[in-house]
Amino acid sequence: MTDTANASQPAAASGTFAIGGDLPVARLGFGTMRLPTGTLHGPARDPEDGIAVLRRAVELGVNHIDTASFYRRGGVVANELVRRALAPYPDGLVIATKVGPVLGPDGTPGPQAAPGQLRGLVEENLRELGLDHLDLVYLRVGGRNAPGGESVAERFAVLAKLREEGLIRHLGVSNVDAAQLAEARVINPVAAVQNAFHVHAAADSGVLAECTRSGTAFVPFFPLGGGLDPLDTTRLEKAAARHGATVQQIALAALLAASPVMLPIPGTGSLAHLEENVGAGALQLTPEDIASLAR
Ligand SMILES: NC(=O)c1ccc[n+]([C@@H]2O[C@H](COP(=O)([O-])OP(=O)(O)OC[C@H]3O[C@@H](n4cnc5c(N)ncnc54)[C@H](OP(=O)(O)O)[C@@H]3O)[C@@H](O)[C@H]2O)c1
Q1: Would residue 149 be called left, alpha or beta, if left means φ above 0 and alpha means ψ between -120 and 50 degrees?
Q2: Would you tell me which of 4, 54, 160, 166 could form a disulfide with 188, CB atoms 3.0–4.6 Å apart?
């Protein structure tokens, strides 16, 4: 890629990683959860804004988009925005989705799907995205609780069967502990793990270490503290001032620096925040920066 292409596609500055060994992506990706609504119980956002953000993300060189059929609010459905914004999909775009929860009557994710419901959920993603196969499907385990405590084997085996049938290229697991990751791997290779993780909420460092060791993509959700555990911005400010960057950019750069398998997918419904987040890929943190972020 030329320098000119890099300047117009800044996501490339974050480096690349091949998911499952054969799906190369810029390490800074994008999550669609914030497109239908900005907050857990907030109103629906304007779908045209979501479409503009998705198109701009791809213009900026983002080619790893994380989505789910259960990202929806008041008729605004993330998967449908992805399709409307980006289909026919450009070569090299990797769309990852996840199945696990079943939607409740109010449209919010409810209890976990039974194994027999997973095929229908995969087919729903195929329909909404307008695809004949899915690049990466995570089994999203558990509710809003911390990972652990339940077997993933029966459900992961169903997804492995759908993979054998050609509906899915690679499988991942989400919201899992080390034991659940090991259990899944016995059934089918795990190309990616997606767990809650950010620079100040690195409770999951054991799973990250295992992903780094094995070359498995580690996709941190809530990388900007969008969930229940906010960023400690005071610990990011010094590095932000040194780089003329925002604290959110430092939080993303710190994730990229933590492991070559780290693929952050910050979510936003704002074009300005998108540009800022993608810009974090070019920041090179120094050991002094990293030390200043430590607890
Ligand atoms: N596997 C799972 O269980 C799971 C769970 C949750 C999320 N996810 C995935 O992970 C992705 C990332 O998580 P997330 O979107 O929930 O949280 P996040 O990326 O940590 O944070 C998103 C929040 O930060 C704001 N924001 C984004 N960029 C910003 C910036 N530069 N400056 C200031 N505020 C900024 C957004 O508001 P604005 O929209 O107003 O910018 C939004 O409120 C999701 O989109 C989804 O794809 C997966």
Answers
A1: left
A2: 160
Residues 6+ apart with CB under 8 A from 193: 172, 173, 174, 176, 181, 207, 211, 216, 217, 218, 219
Residue type, 63: N
Query: What are the tens digits of pLDDT across the range 60-78?
Result: 999 999 999 999 998 999 9
What single letter denotes the amino acid at residue 30? F
Ligand 1 pocket test: which of 32, 34, 39, 82 has the largest number of ligand atoms within 8 Å of its C-beta?
A: 34
pLDDT in tens, 158-201: 999 999 999 999 999 999 999 999 999 999 999 999 999 999 87
Dig out the tokens for 267 from the structure.
Answer: 């979510």
Query: Residue 171, by phi and psi: left (phi above 0), alpha (psi -120 to 50) or beta?
Result: beta
- Residue of 121, 114, 69 whose CA lies nearest to 95: 69
Active site residue 71: yes
Q: What is the DSSP string of 14-65?
A: G-EEEETTTEEEES--EE-TTTTBSSTT-PBPPHHHHHHHHHHHHHTT--EE
Nearest ligand 1 atom, CA 221: 10
Q: Which one of 71, 89, 138, 222 is the catalytic residue?
A: 71
Structure tokens given for 250: 């430092």
- CA-nearest of 188, 192, 233, 237 to 216 is 192
Residue 189, Cβ density class (10 Å: 0-12 exposed, 13-18 middle, ≥19 buried): middle
